[in-house]
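User: Working on a comparison across species. This one is Aryl-alcohol dehydrogenase-like predicted oxidoreductase from Rhodoferax saidenbachensis. Can you predict its structure so I can line it up against the others?
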Amino acid sequence: MKTVQLGSSDLHVTPICLGTMVFGEQVDEPTSHAILSHSLERGINFIDTAEMYAVPPRAETFNLTEKIIGNWIKKNPTAREKLVIATKVAGPSRGMPWVRNGSSNLTAEDIIAACEGSLKRMNIETIDLYQIHWPVRHVPMFGGMYYDPKNENVGGSSIEVQLRAMDTLVKAGKVRAIGLSNETPYGVHEFVRLAEQHGLPRIATVQNNYGLLSRTVENGLDETLHRLGVSLLPYSPLAFGLLTGKYDETGLTGEGAPKDARLGKFESTRKQRWGRPDALKAARRYNALAKEHGLTPTQLALAFCYTKWQVASTIIGVRTLEQLDENINAWGTTLSPELLTQIDAIRWEIRDPAV
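Assistant: Here's the predicted structure for Aryl-alcohol dehydrogenase-like predicted oxidoreductase from Rhodoferax saidenbachensis:
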């Protein structure tokens, strides 16, 4: 598995990234450590986390995932030099009072303090890729559909202020490269424009939801990323399990539905984009299509991301070693032109239900 360069940074990562957001909630610490070790054994050199994790977010688990990773690094000190570690500073609170006392802003001081906290929790001296988890600006995200200027976050830190905070961290050697998450084409352009205008760090990556149930990246953001030389890191390629087939027969909460999976276990998650009726309807169509072509639903969904020109490294989230192996083993799966045409036909009927 060859590595890929992230944007114009000096980071080179495997095209599969281990996502860790369930560590500390659905996955206990010993299992989390086993997954981290096995992922490294399988050749994955890229892990992603966030100060907000574990998810679903709760005050009791805020910062816990980073602590679990830090404990693993303490036990496996030689692992650090083999890894590219990405984490994220949470944006404005979004109804989470345990995040900076519910602040509706993300100041330069907040960014620097959050970075210091992440470094300490993970027992590392430098964060390889430091990302802003969601914009300070009001934008449609996490299932939102439309931009409305009436909802602007008046008084929020400007993009330049955020970049200057990142510049402070880069110059101090605490961060190697920076990125964004849940961003729009406008946001990407502004971060790049202002960085070039003021000699500030240039974003290397954007981490957005992308997969069979949410392809809005292909409606303009992909051109922006391509022309500006910014890499895409898609998250939730299996749509919280919808694209594994586990809910095809039972629905999300029906008799026999998996109780330990995210959508079965957490009502708050079912109220989000993944719990929409059209999301399950579309997933069932894609899962059936996979079987028609001799593939598992997981193989189809992951191969869709793994083989897309838009994608640099796909973030996979797993609860077990078996899931980790299944996801990694899907690498190398190819999709025929006929199958890709059939995928597009389903999208035409049911357009991005988990946007």
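For your comparison, note: DSSP finds twelve helices and ten strands in the chain.

User: Helpful, thanks.
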